[in-house]
Design a protein that fits this description.
Layout lengths: L9 E2 L26 E3 L10 E9 L11 E5 L2 E6 L3 H4 L1 E8 L2 E9 L12 E8 L5 E13 L2 E10 L2 E8 L5 E2 L3 E7 L6 E7 L4 E7 L5 E9 L5 E8 L4 E8 L6 E8 L5 E9 L12 E4 L3 E7 L5 E7 L9 E5 L5 E6 L2 E7 L5 E7 L8 E3 L16 E6 L2 E7 L3 E8 L2
Antiparallel strand pairs: 1-8, 2-28, 3-31, 4-5, 5-6, 6-7, 8-9, 9-10, 10-11, 10-12, 13-14, 14-15, 15-16, 17-18, 18-19, 19-20, 21-22, 22-23, 23-24, 25-26, 26-27, 27-28, 29-30, 30-31
Length: 417
């Protein structure tokens, strides 16, 4: 097993284009009769196509016969795959770190101390980290020992292959109320820390804290104030330095919401704040929480209605907190917002009757460059649930994607205009 050259990184659990033929000899990259990705939706010129810059495949059976697909995240030149199922039932987690050369690390962690005296607490967030020796760790935020019902302490726990009992760090002095509490956790894109956010729906004040390896608190608590209560849809969006905390406040009209977003730096300072009014709400059929992604210039949130319409709101860094957001509306949603490359929104969905891929639109909703068409992918069944294709992250003109073939999981870097 190779030793990774990257010696300290944080891994937290919290592509449309003509592509060159790819896949190692003997792989199933051509499953379904397709030899690779193609651009659809027009006749792209030479400068409108994407190419595969890096490609690796790992067996779907990497973690044995796991009932659900592992989560996949990209951090630098590596990817982390985590298969955990129900942590409180298995009390174990399996991790694999993958580079373009293959699987670098594969560990199974025994999570001793997760359920003291066989009493399991509520898990609020899960992350994966690595120490300076490149030994993956599991970071978990949970409700600690009950102090007085119904309030609980919040703590972080970290395990690695050298310890079965976790390192434990209290995260907040105050207690939380279990029923109306919302929590979320994600890592920064530079893999240096995790951002954990928590709040009570009936209180306009949220708290966020940044946690590093060995469950060490690496920045002070940030206090974030919303415009009203009740609120919901708490999320942490990974950014280059730390993360952005997002929440949604419904307005009485039922036709608008206030989308709040607070971007934090590595010292937990608020470096950008938005309080955008978006024309969605229960009365218009928008009852679900938005999908939120970080872009080169700001943040983008997609709401999808029960009837299949879609609205994407964009807030730009540096603008006033209450500035009117940019809006793109679709009578029929093009798919799930997956990422943003400069002026283009990328949606994961069907590009034709059989093929999934990534459809590209400008931020105003007008058609963009030709969509990415993936190979014909195997369908999910009751016996075997398949993961949907995902755009893991975007850097400049590069998009990092993953999708499942019949027996392998593909990880690719696409270079796109």
């Amino acid at each position: 097993m190779r030793t990774p050259s990257l010696t300290r990184y944080l891994l937290v659990l919290a592509g449309g284009c003509t592509a060159l033929p790819h896949g190692p000899v003997g792989s199933d990259a051509g499953a379904g009769g397709e030899g690779g990705m193609t651009a659809v939706g027009g006749s792209p010129g030479r400068d409108e196509t994407c190419s595969v810059a890096n490609h690796v495949e790992v067996p779907l059976e990497l973690f044995g016969e796991a009932p659900d697909p592992p989560s996949v995240h990209r951090f630098g030149d590596r990817f982390v795959l985590m298969a955990s199922g129900s942590l409180t039932q298995s009390r174990a987690a399996e991790l694999a770190v993958v580079s373009w050369q293959g699987v670098d690390i594969q560990n199974q962690l025994a999570l001793g101390g997760l359920c003291p005296h066989d009493v399991c607490t509520n898990v609020l967030g899960v992350s994966v980290l690595a120490t300076a020796l490149s030994s993956p760790q599991l970071l978990l935020a949970d409700e600690g020992t009950v102090v007085s019902m119904p309030t609980y302490l919040v703590q972080a726990k970290a395990w690695d292959s050298s310890r079965s009992d976790p390192l434990v760090t209290p995260l907040f002095d105050a207690h939380i109320e279990a029923i109306t509490t919302r929590a979320a956790m994600q890592s920064s894109r530079d893999a240096a820390r995790a951002v954990f956010a928590i709040g009570n729906r009936d209180d306009p004040t949220l708290e966020a804290i940044e946690v590093g390896p060995d469950a060490e608190v690496v920045a002070p608590v940030a206090t974030l104030t919303l415009s009203a209560t009740p609120w919901d849809c708490l999320a942490v969006v990974p950014t280059r330095e730390a993360g952005a905390v997002s929440a949604v406040v419904a307005k009485e009209s039922g036709t608008e919401v206030a989308w709040h977003l607070f971007e934090l730096d590595r010292d937990a300072n608020i470096v950008f704040e938005a309080r955008a009014t978006v024309p969605v709400g229960d009365a218009l059929g928008y009852t679900d929480c938005p999908t939120i992604v970080d872009g080169p210039e700001g943040f983008h949130a997609q709401w999808v209605s029960a009837e299949g319409a879609s609205v994407v709101a964009t807030v730009i860094r540096g603008e006033d907190a209450t500035s009117t957001p940019g809006l793109a509306s679709f009578e029929a949603s093009p798919g799930i917002l997956a990422g943003v490359t400069f002026d283009e929104l990328w949606f994961q969905g069907f590009v034709d009757a059989e093929h999934r891929g990534f459809l590209r639109f400008h931020r105003d909703g007008s058609p963009g460059l030709p969509a990415v068409t993936l190979p014909l992918l195997p369908e999910s069944t009751v016996e075997r649930r398949r993961a949907l294709p995902a755009l893991l992250s975007v850097e400049g003109y590069a998009g990092f994607v993953t999708y499942e073939l019949e027996s392998n999981r593909v990880l690719e870097e696409l270079r796109c205009p």
